[in-house]
Amino acid sequence: MTAPAADLAVETRGLTRRFGKVVAVDHLDLQVRRGELYGFLAPNGAGKSTTLRMLCGILEPSEGDGWVLGIDLRHEPERVKAAIGYMSQRFSLYDDLTVDENLAFYARVYEVPRADRDGRMLQMMRLADLVGRERQLAGQLSGGYRQRLALSCALVHRPRLIFLDEPTAGVDPVSRRTFWALIRRLADEGTTIVVTTHYMDEAELCDTLGFIYQGRLIAQGPPARIKGETFAREVCELEADEPARAAELLGEWDTVEEVVRVGGRLRIILAPGAPTPDGLAEMLRARGIGVRWIRAVEPSVEDLFVSFVDKERKARVREQLRALAATQPVGGPGAGGERGGSIPPQSNESAVAPPQRK
Ligand SMILES: Nc1ncnc2c1ncn2[C@@H]1O[C@H](COP(=O)(O)OP(=O)(O)OP(=O)(O)O)[C@@H](O)[C@H]1O
Ligand SMILES: [Mg+2]
Q: Which residues of the chain are modeled with pLDDT < 50?
């Protein structure tokens, strides 16, 4: 078998994980370049967390191969665990320990040399803007600060690669923005970041996007290239006098791939070769429907994602994405078949006993 490419931080070939009859990850061929911010975008249950757990060395693949920072995932999972940082879907903080104590715990688990620990912890506090909160209990921090503390804990041993599993789920928009500014900076400074998200605005900030559906990678590339080449559709919005009837009519036309109602507007994805927005408005007017305005708009990542899944599932997936954007996605299913070892506790996949409070 050929060796993994040196410029790749992650490479998988046919990586697969089954749970009984469920194929959670289905022959995934993944390539993440060193230093890039790679985003996995997918609906619930698509296999994101399972993929990340395999890449972190805590879950054994059923089939296929993978290398993480050049380390063979199947043969040296322990080395993978030590080399990477991982922030699980449910942050793995100890609520009854202080900010300081949580960081110190992770510094010890990740074997940061004793002489470096204080300096490294201070650096992490500064990075996450936690200075002044050292003595606060993690359980009493707000969602945004908890999330930044969890990131600091995953970074305390200065990994060159970090995996973040829905790090902003349930965090308010301002904290989300602050958090993304932080991880964008880390990526720009050379850390490779693999992050999963349901949020379209976050996906747009990634260097490369991977769309996963039912355990398979269905599209991959920089957001702009996916928009321009892979998707290659015009999107427009309009406001009509009778939106319900307009939507029904539009949905019947071959030139229209999809119609979605967004508030009082209709959002339309046009099939290749469709008329211009003005032409579309004329067609509607000819059927007696008044069009107040119509204009071409930028496709969103949501449009892209929905276009990749087969037609009958479109509405359901869009509904799901909406619901996710509006509410807090809940934690993933219970972990099963995990490897043992000394990776720090990740929600229910803990392998390390919690430290005792002094
Ligand atoms: N330990 C497990 N035992 C059995 N089935 C599992 C286990 N872990 C995951 N699965 C199944 O594998 C599939 C993928 O789950 P996974 O948690 O990887 O999805 P996800 O994309 O992370 O979803 P979410 O957005 O909800 O976090 C699902 O069908 C899930 O039920
Ligand atoms: Mg998940």
A: 312, 328-337, 340-358
